[in-house]
Structure formats: C-alpha cells, structure tokens
Design brief:
Blueprint: H1 5-10, H2 29-40, E1 54-61, E2 64-71, E3 77-79, H3 83-88, E4 92-97, H4 105-126, E5 139-141, E6 146-149, H5 163-175, H6 192-195, H7 199-217, H8 220-233, H9 290-294, H10 297-303
Parallel strand pairs: 4-6
Antiparallel strand pairs: 1-2, 2-4, 3-5
Helix pairs in contact: 2-4, 5-7
Length: about 325
Amino acid sequence: MFNTFFYNSLAKEITPLGFSGRVGKNANDPETLKTNILRMQRWTRKFDLFAKDYIVIPINEDFHWMVVAVINPQGALIEDGNEEASRNAPKCFMVFYDPLSGLDPTRRMHITHMIKEYLAAVCGATKGANMKYAVNKGATFDKNRVVVVRPKNAPIQNNFSDCGLYALHFIEGLFCNIDRPVTVDDFPEFDWKECWPEADKMCEFTRDKIYNLIKKRAGPRVRSRIEQYEHDNRCGLSREGESRKSRRHSAVPCSAQYRTPRNTNYYRRFYSLNPPPIKVVQEEPFFSNPRNVATMPVTQKVRKIRPPELSFPLAY
C-alpha cells in the first residue's frame, strides 16, 4: 500500500484532468509525467512491485478522498518467449473507487492513465531481460491487459464530508471479507453488496473505529483530555461504542424504582452525528445527499452519454 504522497508526486504540475481526453491539457504534460515517474522509481527499488497481489493507492485530490486498487498486477505482463500462456492468464484489474459515486468517468480516466504509465515505466526498468526482477527472458507491460472497473454497488457517501471514512471502509472491505480477501477471480462481475450488504451503514461505524484506535494508542494524558472534552461538550462515541467504559454515556435507568438523583459525572448518552451537509442547489436537502442523486435513473443515463455535459456537477 502506497502512502498519500504517491499520487501527489505522480500528478505534480500536471494539468487537472488533462489525461481524461475531455478537457484541454498542456503539451508538456506527457514529459512532466515521465519526469515525475522517473523521480518515483526509487520508491520500489527494494522489492518487485509486480510480485504483489494488491497495490492500494489512496488519493486525495481537491480535498476529496478516493482509492485505486490494482489487483493482480502480474496479469498485465507478457513474458517474452511465452506470450500465449501470459495472455491466457488472469488479467490485471484496476479498481477505481470514488465515494461520490464515480459515475463521471473524467476523473477515473485521468487518474488510471497516469497509474498505468507509472506501472509501465516500472516494468521497463525492472522486468526486462537481465534486469533486477526479470523472470526468464524478461517481460513487457501490456496496457490492454489492465481492465479499469468501478466496483458495482459500492457504498456512496450521503454528505460532502465523509469521503475519507468511506475510502477506509473500501480498503478494509477488500481484505476483511468473512471468507477471504477479494481476489482477481471475483472480477469483473464483483458486486460489493454481496460481500457487504449493509455497507452504507457500516461506513457510519468507521468514525468510531478510528476514535477507539486513537484512544487505545494514546497515552494516559491524551485519553484524560479526550474524556474531559467529552464530558464538557456532552458528546461521545457514535454507534459502535466501547464495552463497559462507554456506560458513562448510558441513558436514564429504565426502571422507575431508581429514585436516587443521577450523579453529575454521568449523563445521558449523546451520539456524534455527521457534520451538517453543505447547502447547494437552492438549499434543497435532496441535492445535498450524493447517494440520492447518484442512484437516480436519470443521473445514470446522463452519465452514459459521450461526452457528458461538463457543467453537470462533477460530484455526481
């Protein structure tokens, strides 16, 4: 898994959406991309990138989180002298996940193009004949064997602030399925709902998981400050909670037999809710929920038009 600097370094000084084929690009963008890739090749000099089963790339662009997962990168290689067997092997799948539905292919085409160029460059520098990670007579990178897909029925955020939580849920879902991790055999017909039927609800727990991890890793001083903040602001964990310790947030006793006044150190449980949605489109609540708009039949039909209207909100 790469860190967040990977894509920022790859896209440095590149025209936004320039490689999508739908907006104008700078004539120097291809050369700039080559320069960026050359600078980044040392990141993988100590291991064979194509020997990995997964390459996970978190992306933050314009304050929005997305994820690209390259599954079976070995499938994009054509082994010299054994071309037929290579072409009969499973392909490489590049899974692009955008919590704002990703129906608009513009951003997807731009990002996946640059990642393909990066993989091709790494292959040329490490997998050729007599090179460091060469196999037999070497191998070449075939871009046509990289299938770009958008996960079917993947969860869509219902506001404009929780993209990071949904991106984390997607990464977790790739590896934490009940039976086994998601593999190349699941594509291209992979349906996210079949593995995670309640994915939209599960994303709401991600905030609490992160909160609990912070509390477990933090020292006593930090935990004390967090607990004091909760007490002063009458807020705490959301839905998942913690066993026992979270009972200090517990509600008023159910039975009427408890007449003793409640201790001031204990208070009714308050739930941390999502931030208020951004008011858009004449403050209509429906349009502040990307999930509602993205699932509309008319939205999906418009997004199939080539090319779609660039003035249509990119979020959907």
